[in-house]
Amino acid sequence: MEGTAQKMLSGFRFSWEPLKEPLGFIRLLEWVFAIFAFATTGGYSGETDILINCSGTTPKAQNINLQFFYPFRLNQISFVVNCLNSTKETVHLVGNFSSSAEFYVTIGVLAFLFCTVMLVVYLGYQHMYHENSQWAIVDFVLTVFFAFMWLVSSSAWAEGLSNVKKSTSPVYILSTVTFCKDVPNSCTPGALPSMGKLNVSVIFGFLNLILWGGNCWFLYKETPWHKPATTQGATEEGTP
């Protein structure tokens, strides 16, 4: 184990040159975009509010402010409507969208870690990468895997975000409050929650899909599956 570590350290040859090539430059973009993808989702918090005026001899207005955040287990968020001369009503938000959100963030973090490792290999062990074809094969296979995972996770999170928007809409929340269905009572929705950050997270997810999918071609050209065919074609062209 110690000998392997010493061999890796002795073989380290740092160079910025790989970043000037499509292989290294695209991997750097993937590294940056992966950070934006999981950061814009995992770091999100928002709020929605409603106003309830209960009818009666002495009406009482309730301004209810609800905060929600990643991983969007909305069914765990509740509030109490307490109208005078009436029974208290506990209302829960609808839906648990943690599975799609956490899956998306997990893929983003894993993609970021994979890009970090491969950038170290590109910048410090480029000679070993080209000498041993196994590096290129592993790089290609894992890139194909992550491209597919970006497709699945981004699609799942796009649908999850649509459901989050619906469940946190003040109009939808008021439709679940029993007191608001009584004609004398007055219920007013507040402003829609700001979802710009989450919209950006979905965009970065599909941008990652494009980057990782496009990078598969450049990585395939580095594998022995492509190079022998190229060599053979060149030989046939040179044959008189």
Helix- and strand-based class? alpha+beta
Number of H/I helices = 8
Measured as a percent range, the helix fraction is 55-70%
> How many domains is the backbone divided into?
1
Mean pLDDT: 84
- Major β-sheet annotation: 3 strands, antiparallel
Tell me the series of helices and strands, N- to C-terminal.
HHEEEEHHHHEHH
Radius of gyration: 27 Å
Low-pLDDT parts are 1-5, 229-240
DSSP E strands, number: 5
- Ends distance: 53 Å
Query: Which strand order spans the largest sheet, edge to edge or round the barrel?
Result: 2-1-5
As a percent range, the share of strand residues is 5-15%
Describe the global form: rod-shaped
Domain MARVEL: 18-224
Transmembrane segments: 21-39, 103-125, 137-158, 198-220
Subcellular location: Membrane
Family: Belongs to the synaptophysin/synaptobrevin family.
